[in-house]
Amino acid sequence: DIVMTQSPDSLAVSLGERATINCKSSQSVLYNSNNKNYLAWYQQKPGQPPKLLLSWASTRESGVPDRVSGSGSGTDFTLTISSLQAEDVALYYCQQYYSAPFTFGPGTKVDIK
Amino acid sequence: EEQLVESGGGLVQPGRSLRLSCAASGFTFDIYAMHWVRQVPGKGLEWVSGISWNSGSIGYADSVKGRFTISRDNAKNSLYVHMSSLRDEDTALYYCAKDKRSYYDTPAFDMWGQGTMVTVSS
Known about the structure:
The complex is a heterodimer.
Chain A: E1 4-7, E2 10-13, E3 19-25, E4 30-31, E5 36-37, E6 39-44, E7 51-55, E8 59-60, E9 68-73, E10 76-81, E11 90-96, E12 108-112
Parallel strand pairs in A: 2-12
Antiparallel strand pairs in A: 1-3, 3-10, 4-5, 6-7, 6-11, 7-8, 9-10, 11-12
Chain B: E1 3-7, E2 10-12, E3 18-25, E4 34-39, E5 45-51, E6 58-60, E7 68-73, E8 78-83, E9 92-99, E10 109-112, E11 116-120
Parallel strand pairs in B: 2-11
Antiparallel strand pairs in B: 1-3, 3-8, 4-5, 4-9, 5-6, 7-8, 9-10, 9-11
């Protein structure tokens, strides 16, 4: 199984400042034949189901603000919120869909400082 | 409005069975793969099972293989999971999740229900 890890476990950022979350997979999730990273990012707010933010490591879903971006390749990935807003307070999970079982990271909690 | 609504959760004794359902509406259900993902309250997410658009391909997490059976009825826009030989560790909130693609084997989950809680306890 591919093990996903995230860092930090939690972070507190001032409004308008940058938040950066790291995700690492135990093996590469880059499929060489199409040069795509099989990595997604989700946001989960209390009492709500997860919401897909990014797929293919960096492709934003419709309606996701452009202050949210993803980068990385292979085994190391980053989710960046360039200017944190109050509505960004949530848990964030990465997930690999390179191979079954499709595994999630443990989550990173983002709060306002 | 696109929507997934789960039902069928509840309190069940270890070793017993339960069937969860997920009713889909507002999108073309029969062209997308569908999945079950569970979450112990306050904990992380675990993919449980997935099924391709035509039920031709199915996969399970090792933790439920041989005990859970996923199925779908495209005529009824519904997804199911039959859970047998339930264990304490199956206690979780079970989400129905829509795949962005037709085959279950590379899923990003772009729509989720609110979940149905399953509690396994004597």
